[in-house]
Amino acid sequence: MDGKKLSHCTIVLFLGLLFLTASPANALLDCVTGVIPSLLPCQNFLTNLLPILPTTQCCSAAKNFTGLDSPKNLCQCLKLNLLTSGILSFKLELLPNLCSITGLLDIVSCIVQPSTPKLPTA
To answer: What are the record keywords, sorted (predicted)?
Structure first.
């Protein structure tokens, strides 16, 4: 591993540890053992360009995910894990509409800032 990659990994690890030590113990346990594993059926969809549609198992998991905790806590958990998980943020942004899950919109919008198209200037 070259110096830049090692430095980047160290920063990510430090931020993760900082987040974990600032969180209550039960929130940490829920995030690590409950929240992130609950999205495993979506891993292929969220981390790869293909497939372009999530599976029914992924949509079911995403629907269950919204009921695990408050949107704020779920957002914080996902924000921390986006740094290290390889999730493509644009695929996460598509998930609520593709799976018809309105409760997921608040969580995703907290993580992914909507992109506004830029008009060409003359």
So the answer is: Signal
39-85: pLDDT as tens digits = 899 999 999 999 999 999 999 999 988 888 888 888 888 887 776 67
Task: State how far the Cα of 51 lies from the Cα of 44, in Å rounded to an integer.
Answer: 8
Contacts 24+ apart (CB under 8 A), 9-13: 12/83, 12/84
Q: Cα separation of 54 and 94, whole Å?
A: 9
> Is the dihedral angle over the CA atoms 25, 34, 31, 96 positive or is it negative?
negative
Give the ranges where 1-122 is alpha helix by DSSP (H).
Answer: 3-22, 25-30, 36-38, 43-47, 56-65, 71-85, 89-99, 103-111
Whether the predicted pLDDT of 32 surpasses 50: yes
| Cα 31 from Cα 55, distance rounded (Å) | 23
CB atoms within 10 A of CB 12: 13
Distance between CA atoms of residues 100 and 78, nearest Å: 20
Q: How far is residue 95 CA from its own chain's centroid?
A: 11
